[in-house]
Amino acid sequence: MRDLFRTRRMWRPRSELKRSYEVVIIGGGAHGLATAYYLQKMGITDVAVLEKGYIGSGAAGRNTTILRSNYKTPEGARFYDASLKLYDQLAVELSFNLLFSKCGHLTLAHSDRAMFVMANRAEVNRLNRIDSRLIGPEEIKQLAPAMSLSPDATYPVMGALYHPPGGIIRHDAVVWGFARGADEGGVEIHPGTEVTGMQRDGDRITAVQTTRGTVAAGTVLSATAGWSSLTAAMAGVALPITTHILQACVTEPVKPLLDVVIVSSQMHVYISQSDRGEFVMGAEIEPWTTYRMLNTLNFLQELARHTLELFPQLEHARMLRAWAGLCDISPDYSPILGATELSNFHISAGWGTYGFKAAPIVGKTLAELIATGRTPDLIAPFALERFYTDSLVSELAAAAVSH
Question: What integer best gives the mean pLDDT of the chain?
């Protein structure tokens, strides 16, 4: 009878590292675990996921849970739309409640130029069959009645890009769901296992060195977010990436006021309200490069000022907590995904602030690449070689604010 009430572990306890694996994945976040999950679905189960902290301790556990696909480039829009479609069915597939709230996403416009940019993005989205359109203040008021639309504001709202499929999802649940699914398929998950180096022979990585010993590897995938350039350097691969911190914070729980994600590109702020009533808020990445994940006073001051312009009723709400995470930024603000000059070393890097949105499609496409040796068409535009062939995929127009 006691067995009936025994707490079921989310995944098996960490085992001893074997001497070799068919696939070694560096990074136990959403991308690494999603790839492991889809690999075992394709029959590749001799896989080790190595995470230096606890599972989901990096970018996957530090983001603000926003999902959307209304990007500026056709390549980016198609890619993120494919990810959003996978997210739609992910809770059922993983048999895990991911708390996905498809509440819609508003990107505000405060100038004529911003309205032009939003109209252009809406056209790109519609050409790729993505639900996205330009709306005026009247419809914005219906979607977010608590938000101030005063014409006397410092940044008066002239319109917005409305993206109904956008929303928020529980980031921890996504990580746990992928980890449990991968574990059930035979994948080994190794938290507390830091990668310290790689052994290379010609154009191949032969082994991965860790704080728990060295393991031989048939294929190696780096999925380490802000640490991507350092991990790739261990393999002798140079990435055109800079690392910055991104900060966010939440208020104490308040009564429901907001049932849509609000983003302002010109005010550099994004706001949503969680199921618990907390206002989740963030801004743009800090302009300096650093690995020091500490909050700054100027972030809180600027964020509070812009948030109160949109939601003055939060004046007396208390700040509950704030945090920072690492973002790896590529020159064109698009990810670096897939194969490198080494025949068995692949990467998922350069995500900036967009990585969590892409987790399912990254896992599915990278698993296909590892299993077949062929790069899926969906990720071909994001290859590392584009920086040498001058075929960039610039998402700067959709990256004026992080989300």
Answer: 94
The per-residue pLDDT for 5 is: 38
The full set of domains in the chain, from first to last, is 9-63+172-240+331-398 (3.50.50.60), 101-167+243-329 (3.30.9.10)
**Other CB atoms closer than 10 Å to residue 403's CB: what's the count?**
28
Identify whether the C-beta of residue 54 lies closer than 8 Å to the C-beta of residue 196: no
Structure confidence at residue 7 (pLDDT): 55
Query: Edge to edge, what strands does the sheet with 269-273 contain?
Result: 133-135, 159-163, 105-109, 261-264, 269-273, 279-282, 242-251, 319-329
CB 107 within 8 Å of CB 160: yes
* Residue pointed to by tokens 């206002």: 279
Is the four-CA dihedral 86, 91, 92, 93 of positive or negative sign? positive
The sign of the CA dihedral 234, 240, 243, 246 is negative
pTM: 0.95
**Measured between alpha carbons, how far is 246 from 297 in angstroms, rounded to an integer?**
13
Determine the pLDDT at residue 400: 45
Euclidean distance between CA atoms 397 and 387, whole angstroms: 19
Full 3-state SS string of the chain: CHHHHCCCCCCCCCCCCCCEEEEEEECCCHHHHHHHHHHHHCCCCCEEEECCCCCCCCHHHCCCCEECCCCCCHHHHHHHHHHHHHHHHHHHHHCCCCCCECCCEEEEECCHHHHHHHHHHHHHHHHCCCCCEEECHHHHHHHCCCCCCCCCCCCCCCEEEEECCCEECCHHHHHHHHHHHHHHCCCEEECCCCEEEEEEECCEEEEEEECCEEEEEEEEEECCHHHHHHHHHHCCCCCCCEEEEEEEEEECCCCCCCCCEEEECCCCEEEEECCCCCEEEECCCCCCECCCCCCCHHHHHHHHHHHHHHCHHHCCCCEEEEEEEEEEECCCCCCEEEECCCCCEEEEECECCCCHHHHHHHHHHHHHHHHHCCCCCCCHHHCCCHHHHCCCCCCHHHCCCCC
